[in-house]
Structure formats: C-alpha cells, structure tokens
Amino acid sequence: MAEAYIVAAVRTAGGRRNGRLMGWHPVDLAGAVLAEVVARSGIEPAAIDDVIMGCVGQAGEQALHIGRNAVLASGLPASIPAVTIDRQCGSSQQAIQFAAQAVLSGTQDVVIAAGVEHMSRVPMGTSVAGAKPYSERQLARFGVRGFSQFTGAEMIARKYSHSRAALDAYALESHRRAAAAVERGNFADEILPIEIDTPDGTRSHAQDEGIRFDASIEGLGSLKTLVEGGVITAGNASQICDGASAVMVVSAAALKAHRLTPLARIHNLTVTAGDPVIMLEEPLFATDRALQRAGMAIGDIDLYEVNEAFAPVPLAWLEHTGADPARLNVNGGAIALGHPLGASGTKLMTTLIHALRKRGLRYGLQTMCEGGGIANVTIVEAL
Q1: What per-residue confidence (pLDDT) applies to 114?
Q2: In three state form, how does the secondary structure of 63-121 look?
Q3: Is 371 exposed, middle or buried (0-12, 13-18, 19+ CB in 10 A)?
Q4: Which tens digit of pLDDT belongs to each residue from 323-356?
Q5: Catalytic site residues (predicted)?
Q6: CATH code at 305?
Q7: 162, 175, 267, 339: which one is catalytic?
Q8: Which member of 89, 175, 205, 354 is catalytic?
Q9: Is 369 in the active site?
C-alpha cells in the first residue's frame, strides 16, 4: 500500500502587522523556508519533483506566481517546478494534501508543500480592490448581499450561544498557552530564525511577535466589537500576520532511496464544503467525515490543531466533536500566534508534528475554516 511521509517541517516566527518582518519581501521569505526545509531533510535538491505554494493575496508583491518566484529566490535549482494555489485560509493545508496525493498516486516522489502571506506588504483585500468578486446570480441564490467571514463568526457565536466573556476567556488561554510554549522552548526546533535589520544592528527574529505575555481578561474585555451588538473583537480573532512555512512530503521509495528520516506519516486527507454564508462552521462536519473515513474516534487523536480564525470556531468544534479541550492548540493558536492566511496550513502542520514528537504522542488532527464554506482535515501519525 502506498504511503506518504513528512520528513521535514519548518516555519518562520510570525511577524505582527508592520512589525519585524516588514523589511522582507514575501518572495524572499517563502524562498527562505524552501531552502531550509530542503536543508533539514538532507535530500539532494535535484530530487525534488515539485513545489506547491499556498498564497491567498496573489497581488502586488505576491503576484505573478509567487511559488515559482520563491524557488528562484531560494537558491535551489531553477529546474524545480512550482505551482501557486488558493483555497483561502486552507491554501497550504491543501498544498500538503495535493503533495500527498501526488506521492500516493505514484506520480511524484518528493514534493514540498509550502505557504506564504505577507499581510503587511500585501494587505487583505488587495487582490479584489475595486472589483466585484461575487455575481448577482450567486448572491441571489443564497439571499445575501455578500459573503463575510466576520458575519459567519457572529452567526456561529449566536448558534452555539457563545458569550463575549466565553470568547475572551478562550482568547486569554490562547495567549497563556503560547507564552508558556515560548518559555519552555517548544517552538525552538520548528522556527527558522530570520535576520532583520534594526536601528541597533542586525537581529534574529525567532519568536512569534503577536503573543501578549501580559494579556488579561480586563484588557480583552476593553476592546470594541467589530460590529455593533456583536461579540467578535480584534482580541478574540486571529491576528494579522506575516510569515512562511514549508513541509516536505515523500514516498516510501524516496524515503529509502535518499535515506531520509520520517517525522510523520500522513494518515488521512479530507476536504468538504457546506454553507457559504455561515462559512466557518465546516471544520465540524469535515472532522466527522475524516474520522469516519479513517476508522477512528475523536478520542483516538492525541492532539488537535484547529485554526483560531475566530474564537467561536474552535469552541463550536469542541462542542460538536466532544473533543478534550486540553488536547486542543496546546501551544496556543492564531489568536496569539497570528494567522498568515496562505501560510497557516503548513504552519499548523509544522507545530502539530513537533508537538506530537516532543510529547511522545501518536496521532494529530489539523483542520481550519476557509472562505466559501470549505474545510480541510489532515490526520497524521508521528513517527
């Protein structure tokens, strides 16, 4: 039976909006993680069959095929092909799944799945500025004037009776877990330090910039809601973030031929779609399907990474699945660490694999909500 393995996984530390990574071009940031994932794997670059790069804001400095441009900036051979994909926030998680499908099919043996998003230099909405992405026919079908993730988050909060206090409490726990992870050195093995220029000279950016080590429930409670009468604030939603990440997926044949050391085996690949209006609820149902296809129960999974796009999403996921909150986002999530859109899929996978191995645990599940009501679920087995 064909199998797909992850042999290297790396990410940059997240940069806050207009923060430490502001001076880095997104192509160079993506190129840096490509070069590093190859170096960490120990494989000869000529053996790489393809690069699949997730990116949501494919405009400005992220336009004109950033996947290919990143290969050319990385120092890797120009003979390595690439493709850039957009499945919204799940873009690089889908890159992992496409890479695994290529390997499982026997079409390719060594594929890098990666993602990048520089939300400071290419702000959200850049690619649709002045455009009308939704047609009247599409809007009429669903009886709406537009589709909004913010509306979806508020809808989930109402549906699952999430109070503002409950969302802020969840956000505070995300910061506390992330701060504790930094203090324990949990991220050290997964982060590629990035050299940045400062007024005091060159420094190494190796710690996620968005973590609030002094976060408090009072501070979170003082923030205004994004819509009047709502419960979502900037404090209980994911942070705008700059970053890049990459994982290398290989076949069993490549594992043997190149004497690679596997970090994890890919156990299940699932993607589903549902209501595009509430939009962010689909991870709940995608998880049901993934577990059923894998012949597993939620209790069989040791750690979960559920993207914290907005606090109602992981809270609703916990309620729906009956999962153990202690196993969820154990090192904090996007509320504290940031959500670099197209890079988040491979970022979460990097964190999940390292967390499983550090704890001596076996199975991990990753899922995230995506624009249009789509969700990916990937189950891995740490080795």
Answers
A1: 99
A2: CCCHHHHHHHHHCCCCCCCEEEECECECHHHHHHHHHHHHHHHCCCCEEEEEEEEECCC
A3: buried
A4: 999 999 999 999 999 999 999 999 999 999 999 9
A5: 89 (acyl-thioester intermediate), 339 (proton acceptor), 369 (proton acceptor)
A6: 3.40.47.10
A7: 339
A8: 89
A9: yes
| Rounded CA separation 211/232 (Å) | 19
Terminal Cα-to-Cα distance of the chain (whole angstroms): 18
Contact in structure between 245 and 10 (CB atoms under 8 Å): yes
Question: What is the pLDDT averaged over residues 183-195?
Answer: 98
Per-residue burial over 19-44, b = 16 or more CB atoms within 10 Å of its CB, e = otherwise: bbbeebebbbbbbbbbbbbbebbebe
Beta bridge partners of 243: 117
332 part of a folded domain: yes
Residue 335 lies in a domain: yes
Which domain, by its residues, includes 280?
A: 266-378
Phi and psi at 91, nearest 5°, equal -55, -50
Question: So what's the pLDDT on residue 199?
Answer: 82
The tally of CA atoms less than 13 A away on the side-chain side of residue 362 is 4
Write out 256-322 in H/E/C secondary structure.
Answer: HHCCCCCCEEEEEEEEEECCCCCCCCHHHHHHHHHHHHHCCCHHHCCEEEECCCECHHHHHHHHHHC
Residues 6+ apart with CB under 8 A from 183: none
Residue 184 has pLDDT above 90, yes or no: yes
Active-site residue, 55 included: no
Rg (CA), the chain: 20
The pLDDT mean for the chain works out to: 97
In a domain, 324, yes or no: yes
Of 79, 33, 67, 46, the residue nearest 190 (C-alpha): 33
Closest CA to 306 of 291, 293, 292, 287: 287
What are the pLDDT digits (tens) for 20-39? 999 999 999 999 999 999 99
Rounded Cα gap, residues 64 and 56, in angstroms: 13
Taking the CA of residue 230 as centre, how many other CA atoms within 13 Å lie in the half-sphere pointing to its CB?
21
Task: Domain count for the chain, please give it.
Answer: 1
pLDDT value for 201: 83
Percent of the chain whose predicted confidence (pLDDT) is above 90: 96
Residues 6+ apart with CB under 8 A from 161: none
Residue 118 lies in a domain: no
Q: Do residues 318 and 159 make contact, with C-beta atoms less than 8 angstroms apart?
A: no
Residues forming beta bridges with residue 82, ordered by sequence position: 51
Report if pTM > 0.85: yes
